[in-house]
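Retro notes - structure team

What went well: the batch runner handled both jobs without manual restarts.
What didn't: labels got mixed up in the shared folder, which is why I'm recording both outputs here explicitly, each with its sequence directly above its tokens.

Job 1
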Amino acid sequence: MNSIDTAGGTGSAAPPALRSALEQLRLEGAIFFSSELTEPFAFASTPLALADSLHPGAERLILFHIVARGSCWVSVADGERHRASEGDVIVLPYGDEYTIGGDAPAECVSILTLIDPPPWHVMPSIQHGGGGARTDLVCGYLYSEDPLFDPSMRALPAVFVVRPPAGAASGWVQASIAYSLEHLAPSNESDSLVATRLPELVLIEVLRAHLATAPAADHGWIAALRDPVLAPALALIHGAPDRRWTVAELASATAVSRSLLDERFREVLGRPPIRYLTEWRMHRAQELLATTDLGVAAVARRVGYASEEAFSRAFKRAHGLSPSHWRVAHA
């Protein structure tokens, strides 16, 4: 088991409290494999079916896919397609069943028909598709007992796409892609400390970039996931941001008083519950606008707004631009 220390490694702009918390995440069972996909292509995967093989006794798994070349889309149970292009990183923090495909329509096949079952003594590699435009993925599997990756908490979306900011962080992720493709042994079988820890370091950097914009990232957000009062309340908010939560409903659902819930939010997260809910909705809205084709009205409904106008006003207050203008600026 490894304690991740990336201090000074990539120059991430994450708030100090968040950076410190991420450096203490404990991850293990790292492994890489590669996929060479050509249009048209589509495959479905159920990662948890491999969890025990990759980490004996595991009931959870963290995945990420680095797009080393080309582009693709990824979707989970809700069916929404999140787009990812060269240099982007797709993260599935709870190992949910997912589908990856290309631009052209294609018959979807199971990944189990494309790859030999573990254990692997050389890095697994997938070649699949119809011979057209090529997309290359570098895939990492990890395991962690940290509450951040607890499927019952759902502190993170089931799938999200991170575009590392330009500069040192982006260059470092790209260098990691090149390094991983040069090493043909599964990283958890490698004698190289760098090869063993590389998937872990990549995930930490990607989480920094993603969570730097999350509400309360500058306070105790990850600590709150371990708090017996806050953890169940956050699980409810993160799992159903579209619900019209009140403090009374959250307190009742988590079996604490309204005053205690409000006090813990203010102490640990630096804001009252409803302000946190609003900020979390805006965070989720950014993700949906950046990586899906959902219209503004559909995004508004997904994050709990009955009208597009009300959502647009709230989004502009939070981010300085209307949702449509923000989407264009971040395309």
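Job 2
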Amino acid sequence: MPINALLIRSLMQRYSYYGDSFKIECPTGSGKHMTLYEVAIELVNRLSRLFLRDEKGRRPVFGGAEKFQNDPHWKDNILFYEYFHGDNGAGLGASHQTAGLESSPG
């Protein structure tokens, strides 16, 4: 996550120099071209979705941990993990060192 934050900040800084005139393909192979600002926002949205409920009401960050997905005492206590699974977004590594965040309704 910290590397992603640095990457997003760097994209924003480069956008402030290049502006709308410089575009890159995002995602790679899609044929869709975006400004560096748009790419940064796309990354922010993707990272945010790790913590938000999907259409089934499940949070990717909780992976297959049913207690965190369904238990009323845990499902809104969002933990911030040290690492995240690259394919499904499940939180990995230390979470006991990070403070849980209460989510807003919705």
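One thing worth noting from job 2: Strands lie at 23-25, 33-35, 77-78, 83-84, 91-92, 101-102.
We'll revisit the folder naming next retro.
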